[in-house]
């Protein structure tokens, strides 16, 4: 990013904004408004950072249309209706300018029955199994493994070390970060009369629809005999476990370190904060929000907000969590009252 240079006017044109100050100021990096530097472009998104715009060393700052300067500014400004979306749009623009890798590395092992689309990159040490299909413009970075009969759509990115077991299906425009494992066996065992656990064969697969992003070291297990399904637009953070037979609804977001047990069904547009745990065979309706470290042991209705373990409504849960700090003092007072009562 630092090697690319644009004028303030050029950036305003890209974002659809207007400029004040020197439109020919050169910008070559994005910086923070409270730690700006010459040649840097900062964003004023949160009003509490507004005092920094009068002292910043950044060469330009993107502000909201309604911003009114209380005194002279040391930088050029770009006015946008929504600076936060402007930041996203600018980062996306920079992303398109990054060099794109193409071609197949000599050390990659590709089965003769595999079908490779146009514009595909396959890095060093990649293994591509029998009857695999890789769509146009997908990028398979070094040391990835694609088992037999895997289907990868178009415009996907699989970062180094992604492992996809046989028969799994990945849609288009997906991003799988390093260490993600798709299609490993579900945790299925049955104890006999001597408590020796017999493995239940896991014969299904995982289907990941379009526009899904999966974080580093996240695991999604295959179904026992059908499919574990991740619907369109789902975003899953790092170090998350999704067990066999689950279905995650469209545009649901799941933060890091969540654990979702087998056969859970989650609706559309849900939000799971970090370290949420969900019991097997539980159903969450659309637009459910679960606060961090929530333990969900029963079904949650459409649109409900929950927190705590076991999960309570957000209002009750926050009160319960807030009261925990008073429990030691309360126990002490009760003990003292009991002693007085005995006397």
Structural account:
The chain is α/β, with parallel strands linked by helices and 343 residues long. It folds into two domains: 92 residues, MurE/MurF, N-terminal domain (Udp-n-acetylmuramoylalanyl-d-glutamate--2,6- Diaminopimelate Ligase, Chain: A, domain 1); 218 residues, Hexapeptide repeat proteins (UDP N-Acetylglucosamine Acyltransferase, domain 1), CATH 2.160.10. The chain is 14% helix and 29% strand. It has a twelve-stranded mixed β-sheet, covered by helices on one side. Strands 9-12-15-18-21-26-29-32-35-38 form a ten-stranded parallel β-sheet, with no helix packed on it. A nine-stranded parallel β-sheet has the order 10-13-16-19-24-27-30-33-36, with no helix packed on it. It is flat, with a radius of gyration of 26 Å. The mean pLDDT is 95.
């Amino acid at each position: 990013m630092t090697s690319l240079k644009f004028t303030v006017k050029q950036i305003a044109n890209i974002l659809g904004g207007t400029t004040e100050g020197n439109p020919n100021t050169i910008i070559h990096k994005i910086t923070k408004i409270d730690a700006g530097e010459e040649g840097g472009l900062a964003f004023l998104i949160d009003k509490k950072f507004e005092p920094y715009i009068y002292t910043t060393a950044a060469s330009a700052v993107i502000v909201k249309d309604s911003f009114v300067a209380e005194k002279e500014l040391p930088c050029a400004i770009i006015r946008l209706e929504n600076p936060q979306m402007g930041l996203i749009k600018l980062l996306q623009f920079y992303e398109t300018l990054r060099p794109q890798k193409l071609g197949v590395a000599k050390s990659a092992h590709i089965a003769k029955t595999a079908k490779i689309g146009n514009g595909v990159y396959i890095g060093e040490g990649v293994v591509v199994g029998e009857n695999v299909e890789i769509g146009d413009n997908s990028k398979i970075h070094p040391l990835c493994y694609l088992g037999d009969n895997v289907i990868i759509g178009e415009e996907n990115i699989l970062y180094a070390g992604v492992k996809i077991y046989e028969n799994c299906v990945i849609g288009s425009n997906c991003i799988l970060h390093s260490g993600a494992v798709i299609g490993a066996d579900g945790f299925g065992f049955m104890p006999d009369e001597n408590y020796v656990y017999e493995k239940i064969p896991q014969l299904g697969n995982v289907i990941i629809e379009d526009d899904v992003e999966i974080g580093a070291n996240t695991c999604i297990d295959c179904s026992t005999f059908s499919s574990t399904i991740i619907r369109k637009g789902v975003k899953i953070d790092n170090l998350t476990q999704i067990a066999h037979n689950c279905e995650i609804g469209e545009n649901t977001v799941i933060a890091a370190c969540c654990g979702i047990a087998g056969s859970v069904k989650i609706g559309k547009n849900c939000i799971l904060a970090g370290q949420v745990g969900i019991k097997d065979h539980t159903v969450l309706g659309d637009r459910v929000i679960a606060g961090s470290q929530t333990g969900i042991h029963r079904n949650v209705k459409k649109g409900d907000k929950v927190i705590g373990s076991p999960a309570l409504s957000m209002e009750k849960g926050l009160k319960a969590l807030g009261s925990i700090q008073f429990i030691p003092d309360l126990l002490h007072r009760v003990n003292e009252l009991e002693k007085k009562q005995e006397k």
